[in-house]
Amino acid sequence: MKSLLIISLTFLSITISSQDLKDNQLPYYEIPEQPERYTAGTVASRMMDGLGFRYYWATEGLKSNDLEFKASESGRTSAETIDHILGLSSFILNSVSSDKSRTNEALLSFEEKRKQTLLNIKEASDILRNMDDVSQFDNDKFPFWNIINGPISDALWHCGQVVMLRRASGNSFNSKVSVFTGTVRE
User: Fold this and answer.
1) By C-alpha distance, which of 78, 53, 48 is closest to 147?
2) What are the pLDDT digits (tens) for 67-103?
3) Are 8 and 16 in contact (CB under 8 A)?
4) Residue 147 is inside which H or E element, if any?
5) Most-buried pick from 68, 70, 96, 184 (CB within 10 A)?
6) CA distances from 152 to 18, 90, 93, 145, 157 (A)
7) Which sequence spans correspond to the domains of the chain?
8) What is the pLDDT of residue 15?
9) Residue 22 reports pLDDT greater than 60
10) Which residues have C-beta within 8 Å of that of residue 144, sequence separation ≥ 6?
11) What is the pLDDT, as a whole number, of residue 70?
12) Is the Cβ–Cβ distance between 128 and 51 less than 8 Å?
């Protein structure tokens, strides 16, 4: 019975979230409203929302010269870093979802990769938000803690790298974006 309730709540949340994407808008232009209560799931969900908001703005308005830019010969380009973040978002989503389907990410354009990354983050956030206990996502090898200090933290780290690379290529981060409040100042 409890599993049926969780599945129903997750489906409802994803349905409502997909309605938020009217007119083909991507999630995380602004961070969603904060949950009413603190649980392990709502905190993990909010971490994903923070990642989604940062990723949205780190990648908004990137041009081909930004994507090709890298700070050093041995470093990654912005496009390679974005590919890595997409892979991390897929890993996170697969860690919390029973649906393990995956698109062929290598064939996607930058805009498609950006959209898929944001949708992966949003879906993982929606799943987590409805959980009181995230230990159900522990597996034989690793507890959920490793998802937090591994791919979630790694993706946040790499969003900062994309911002640094875009600045170095001459395309600054939008100064009206407040990562503290999760809003865009008008």
Assistant:
1) 48
2) 999 999 999 999 999 999 999 999 999 999 988 776 6
3) no
4) helix 145-147
5) 96
6) 23, 11, 10, 10, 9
7) 2-184
8) 47
9) no
10) 44, 95, 134, 135, 137, 138
11) 94
12) no
